[in-house]
Specification:
- The protein is α/β, with parallel strands linked by helices.
- The protein has 3 domains: 5-44, no CATH class; 62-171 and 302-332, Rossmann fold, CATH 3.40.50.2300; 172-300, Response regulator (Rossmann fold, 3-Layer(aba) Sandwich), CATH 3.40.50.2300.
- It is 41% helix and 17% strand.
- α1 (5-12) packs across α3.
- The longest helix is centred in the first third of the chain and has 19 residues, at 78-96.
- It is elongated and about 70 Å long.
């Protein structure tokens, strides 16, 4: 069996990204580490696969492949987000004379065929990849294979500065902090945290929960663990939460879908939103269902994320001095009708 980059990383006691940096002659690795990795690769007989030729001449139209890997995603807005990102990507592509091939809705079982078709088929005219969707994790085989082949790529809504890839996304800490600060400014102190158990699979879960804990400690000098609700369904979880803890005045939902479910749960209980309970979400990715108060949220500019991803990918292809970049977009508070002030002027 042919040795892999993972074999080299395991024997050398380093990460796959470090091996990639060394074998691709990228900066950021000490000479001692570089020597150890090169020696290990030689001992195992490993070398980088031959890179598939890219169509990068300045006078030729570039071709980008956009891959949407949904994984186990259950969001109702999973394709809506894809469209919003894709609009930004296509907007830049039209200005820069770039052809876009979009592959939407791939699931885990499809990726083996996709890898063969996109990464190793010499007849596939793709100069770079833009990856999005919950299915792309740090250990994604397709992503690491693209790194081995030195194919330029950008991943959306991730922040992996330790990996040799480009990313464009939001600052999850800043986003959550903005939502919690808004509730605090409205006078709320008894704030609950709402998420589904399935949300724990995503890297932003811990960041947003940590921000919530810090804010509660700051506001109340204590953290009430009973106000942290992880359920199987946001609507039912909200009913249970507010039945057991009627003292709660606001709910910080981990994203907009949970926030809308929380509003529905409160309404089902006969409560008035926001008179009886204020609810705030994150991401700006969900439309408010008909008949419910419009949601207050902290919106991510999805169009800009897509636009910047395409621009970054082109710069990475055309400038050999650019290894990779990590861009963070600003999120913005959007005031709806789901929150009210407890402060009496």
């Amino acid at each position: 069996m042919q040795p892999t980059m993972e074999d080299v990383a395991r024997k050398a006691g380093v990460s796959k990204s470090t091996v990639s940096f060394v074998l691709n002659d990228k900066p950021g690795v000490s000479e001692e580490m570089k020597t150890a990795v090169l020696k290990t690769a030689e001992e195992l007989g490993y070398s980088l696969p031959e890179r598939r030729p890219m169509r990068t001449p300045q006078n030729q139209q570039k071709n980008f492949t956009v891959i949407h890997h949904v994984g186990q995603e259950t969001y109702n807005n999973v394709y809506g987000l894809f469209v919003n990102y894709l609009q930004g990507i296509r907007n830049f592509a039209q200005q820069a004379n770039i052809n876009i091939t979009a592959i939407n809705g791939y699931h885990k079982g499809d990726l083996a065929n996709l890898e063969t078709h996109i990464l190793t088929d010499k007849n596939t005219p793709s100069d770079g990849l833009i990856l999005m969707g919950a299915g792309f994790k740090r250990d994604s085989q397709l992503m690491h294979r693209a790194i081995e082949l030195q194919i330029p790529l950008v991943v959306l809504s991730r922040n992996w500065p330790d990996l040799p890839i480009s990313t464009v996304g939001q600052n999850h800490h800043q986003q959550a902090q903005t939502a919690l600060d808004h509730l605090a400014q409205l006078g709320h102190r008894k704030i609950a945290f709402l998420a589904n158990k399935s949300d724990q699979a995503y890297e932003w879960f811990d960041v947003r929960l940590s921000c919530y804990r810090q804010k509660m400690q700051q506001l109340n000098q204590t953290i009430n663990e009973d106000w942290i609700m992880l359920g199987d369904n946001g609507t039912d979880a909200t009913k249970k939460l507010l039945t057991q803890h009627p003292e709660i005045t606001a709910i910080f939902a981990i994203h907009d879908e949970r926030a809308n479910q929380a509003i529905q749960g409160a309404v089902d209980m006969g409560l008035d939103v926001p008179k009886d309970i204020s609810i705030i979400g994150l991401d700006g990715s969900e439309d408010t269902p008909s008949g419910l108060p419009t949601l207050t949220t902290v919106q991510v500019p999805h169009f800009e994320v897509g636009y910047l991803a395409a621009e970054l990918l082109l710069r990475q292809i055309e400038n050999e001095s650019l290894c990779h970049g990590n861009l963070i977009v600003c999120s913005q508070l959007i005031k709806g009708a789901s929150c009210r002030s407890l402060v009496h002027n």
